[in-house]
Design goal:
Elements (H helix, E strand, L loop, with lengths): L1 E4 L10 E4 L9 E11 L1 H7 L16 E9 L11 E5 L8 E5 L3 E3 L6 H5 L2 H14 L7 E4 L5 H12 L3 E6 L2 H9 L4 E4 L5 H8 L7 E4 L4 H8 L6 E4 L13 H6 L2 E4 L2 H7 L1 H16 L7 E6 L3 H9 L6 E5 L2
Parallel strand pairs: 8-9, 8-11, 9-10, 11-12, 12-13, 14-15
Antiparallel strand pairs: 1-2, 3-4, 3-6, 3-15, 4-5, 5-7
Length: 325
């Protein structure tokens, strides 16, 4: 097998593409021939030593992947050699093969493309857990999506619309706003040139959004929270801006509002049955054409460093996927 190895926590530039022995699955594990893997923001943090999970060195990064089962370890019942699967294992995805616990692999129907599957579990699993499980989003409510043209942002637009909500998508360029409208957003805000609070007041007739979906952090968080509706729910997804904001908690008191943390990986681990039900609904929506990952770039697996550079430019819409030929 070939894979990208993280041998030091010096970021993407220090990753090394090299050959290694093809691993054999142990008890409860399977070996997957990886056909596609997607790049997520935590993949950058983990090779910089800044993520909450710090695997021992050396390791192969890449949390999210899809491929074909090549070998099955003892005790695995629901997967067989030849099964198509998607996985979110935390590491191991940026290579030609990986060994992963069978429990973190989702069997795929034949119509599910490997590229779509590789860009599905993390972003759509996170977003369904956030909007439907944590925020209990109801049809007719209004959702503000920050960073709406990114991987989780585009998933949030689609899932909120599938749930019957009104979506206000906020992004940093007119081109990104145009993509959000194509995905079904009811209104858009270019927060680089428009005042977020003024626009939200106008678009919601002074009420504010019922739910704020926030993968960005930084200065936008407080602006959005100051605009939230009575009994609003602010979903903390991540901090793509790089800055972890501090909120004046009197705002939560005055609005009767909630700040909700969203950590899908831990949810999937602690509540596997609830997570499986979420994924089943997402797979059904995919089959019905209601949701589909936005993939702007597909690169060969050996071009991982170029993919990190593209992601760092903040110009990528949707997801980046790496493929093995």
């Amino acid at each position: 097998m070939h894979a990208w190895f993280c041998e030091t926590l010096d970021g993407p530039e220090a990753l090394v593409w090299k050959e290694a022995p093809t691993p054999e699955p142990g008890k409860g594990e399977v070996r997957v021939a990886i056909r596609a893997a997607s790049l997520n923001f935590p993949d950058l943090l983990i090779v910089q030593g800044k993520y909450q999970m710090r695997p021992p060195l050396p390791f192969v990064p890449g949390a999210e992947f899809a491929g074909v089962v090549e070998a099955v370890g003892e005790g695995v019942k629901h997967l067989a050699v030849g099964s198509h699967v998607a996985g979110f294992a935390g590491t191991g995805g940026f290579g030609s093969h990986t060994v992963a616990p069978a429990a973190v692999l989702m069997p795929l129907p034949p119509v599910f493309s490997f590229a779509d599957a590789a860009a599905f579990l993390c972003t759509y699993g996170t977003t369904y857990h956030a909007l439907l499980d944590r925020a209990a989003l109801k049809a007719g409510e209004t959702v503000l999506v920050l960073g709406a043209a990114g991987g989780v942002g585009t998933a949030a637009i689609q899932i909120a619309k599938a749930a019957g909500a009104k979506v206000i998508a906020a992004a940093s360029t007119d081109e990104k706003c145009a993509l959000c409208r194509e995905l079904g957003a009811d209104a858009t805000i270019n927060y680089t040139v428009q005042n977020l609070r003024d626009e939200l007041k106008a678009l919601t007739e002074g009420k504010g959004p019922d739910v704020v979906y926030d993968p960005v952090g930084g200065d936008l968080t407080e602006q959005a929270f100051r605009s939230i509706a009575w009994r609003g729910r602010h979903l903390v997804i991540g901090f793509a801006n790089g800055a972890i904001p501090s909120l004046p908690l009197n705002l939560a008191l005055l609005k009767g509002a909630s700040v909700m943390g969203v950590f899908w990986g831990e949810f999937a681990k602690r509540e596997p049955q609830n997570n499986a039900a979420c994924l089943m609904q997402l797979a059904a929506w995919y089959m019905e054409g209601k949701i589909k990952p936005v993939i702007e770039h597909q690169l060969p697996m050996p071009q991982l460093k170029e993919a990190f550079t593209l992601m760092g430019s903040r110009q990528v819409r949707g997801k980046l996927v790496l493929v093995n030929s």
